[in-house]
Amino acid sequence: MTESTGDLAAHDGLRPASDVPSLALLLTQAERSLRRQLDPPLAEAGLTFEHWRIMTVLLARPGARMSAIADEAVLPAATLTRHMDHLVERAMVVRRIDPGDKRRVVAALSPMGEELALRLRAVERVVEAAIAQGLGSARFATLGHELSLIPHLFD
């Protein structure tokens, strides 16, 4: 049995769970693989992977509060502020006082930011399509669904 066959056996439940790498390790390795595919087009646009996470949150939830953006983009508040400052300076994001709560700030993509986010999202979809092809579309859909459940298991 080759090393790669042994690795596949671990993922198919043929080896004891103690022989399978930790979920944290597997998720980090998967993120690294995604970053390797997305970093070149992001760098070309002058963005980092962290900027992209913020922009994808704002693409899905325009007008989100900063605290929600930090939570969804998985960034500490201070780090979010630094990255948001960069995106605002580049005219990718606009920040406003929340009309419902003057103590809070909300953000949204600017028209230029939305245009760029949509172009980058198309690149991300190509990467996702390659993953879906490698896993099979049903397994890819299941993976996305299962991963979306994990954060809610600890609420």
TrEMBL record:
<protein>
    <recommendedName>
        <fullName>HTH marR-type domain-containing protein</fullName>
    </recommendedName>
</protein>
<dbReference type="Pfam" id="PF12802">
    <property type="entry name" value="MarR_2"/>
</dbReference>
<keyword id="KW-0804">Transcription</keyword>
<keyword id="KW-0238">DNA-binding</keyword>
<dbReference type="InterPro" id="IPR039422">
    <property type="entry name" value="MarR/SlyA-like"/>
</dbReference>
<keyword id="KW-0805">Transcription regulation</keyword>
<dbReference type="InterPro" id="IPR000835">
    <property type="entry name" value="HTH_MarR-typ"/>
</dbReference>
<dbReference type="InterPro" id="IPR036388">
    <property type="entry name" value="WH-like_DNA-bd_sf"/>
</dbReference>
<feature type="domain" description="HTH marR-type">
    <location>
        <begin position="20"/>
        <end position="155"/>
    </location>
</feature>
<dbReference type="InterPro" id="IPR036390">
    <property type="entry name" value="WH_DNA-bd_sf"/>
</dbReference>
